[in-house]
Amino acid sequence: METPTFSINDMFSIAGQVAVVTGGGTGLGKAITNAFAINGAKVIITGRRLDVLQKTANDIGGDIICIQGDVSTKTGVEDIVAQISEKTSVVDTLVNCAGVAIPFRTPIQDHNDPDSVEKLLAGVIDADFEKQNAVNINGVYFMTTLLVPLLRKSSNPNVTIIASTAGILNTRMTGSLTYGISKAGAIHAATLLAGRLHPLKIRVNCICPGVFPSDMTGKNSGGYHFDLAEPMRKAAARSTLGRPGKPEEIAGPVVMLASKSGMYMNNALIIIDGGRSMVASINDGIRLPEDS
Ligand SMILES: NC(=O)c1ccc[n+]([C@@H]2O[C@H](COP(=O)([O-])OP(=O)(O)OC[C@H]3O[C@@H](n4cnc5c(N)ncnc54)[C@H](OP(=O)(O)O)[C@@H]3O)[C@@H](O)[C@H]2O)c1
């Protein structure tokens, strides 16, 4: 056994890695891309909007390759993987960050009023399930499984799935039931994929973020700054830290999972929510004062 150095640079190094970040052009994916690029990894970022990817690559600098593609179908992912294969023969880290959140179509004011709840639930249509599942579950499955040949060439192959606390908690005031169900699928996909891929030495872990400022939760006001939508601001306040997450607070754990420090982690479920799980659940907006 080699003698450990315990040097931060050794324990958490991702230098020289090839990382693929889906949804790497915006929000959480952009922060993760930034952390990998600034620390010496080659980062391949994907998304449907090439101009958004290219702007992110220019803003960050470093070794970033942009690949346009849609993860919501198997053929879309096959096309993305074909493009990745033209750029590299090995992938060390895959971060499945692309995701979509569709709100309820018939928003209500009072989540305890029986008539309002009936209206809320009845407003859901087939497409809400289909679109979110296609990106949040199918996209994760196909990106992970179709990248296996390139992941197998790595000495530390690892996959991180960005799911959501919405897939675990009984949050009522933010998001939608259909989003939460799709994220629950993503969480269990991590477990099942970790189980299947262990003979190939590919680790699969899952991160469930709480509230982080992004296009999904607010309006961009320049760079990494976002004005959170009001329900999200309140949700972030209903955490023990009383604030939303910061870009480094999502990027850091992903870097850890990909580095030597994460090599003993497989099928880990990491909740990064400022303690929101302790106070959300069915209490979300019911028993606690909104701004407490
Ligand atoms: N922000 C939060 O508070 C929060 C909390 C929990 C979990 N999450 C999860 O974190 C991940 C990132 O979200 P975010 O908050 O950073 O929001 P975001 O900025 O809207 O990021 C979503 C990304 O996914 C990409 N994407 C969406 N549909 C796609 C498709 N069909 N094919 C390929 N790429 C697609 C988007 O790029 P294009 O539109 O260009 O394709 C975009 O870059 C998501 O999985 C989200 O569910 C976020």
Overall description:
This protein is of the alpha/beta class and 292 residues long. Helix content is 41%, strand content 14%. The strands form two sheets. A seven-stranded parallel beta sheet has the order 3-2-1-4-5-6-9, sandwiched between helices. Helix 4 (74-87) runs parallel beside helix 6 (126-146). The chain is globular. The structure holds NADP nicotinamide-adenine-dinucleotide phosphate. NADP nicotinamide-adenine-dinucleotide phosphate is lined by residues 22-23, 25-29, 47-49, 52, 70-72, 97-101, 135, 162, 164, 209, 211-212, 214-217. Residues 22-23, 25-29, 47-49, 52, 70-72, 97-101, 135, 162, 164, 209, 211-212, 214-217 line the site of NADP nicotinamide-adenine-dinucleotide phosphate (NAP).
Topology at a glance:
Layout: H1 8-11, E1 18-22, H2 27-38, E2 42-47, H3 50-60, E3 64-68, H4 74-87, E4 93-96, H5 114-122, H6 126-146, H7 148-151, E5 158-162, H8 177-197, E6 203-209, E7 218-220, E8 226-228, H9 230-237, H10 247-258, E9 269-272, H11 276-279
Parallel strand pairs: 1-2, 1-4, 2-3, 4-5, 5-6, 6-9
Antiparallel strand pairs: 7-8
Helix pairs in contact: 2-10, 4-6, 6-8
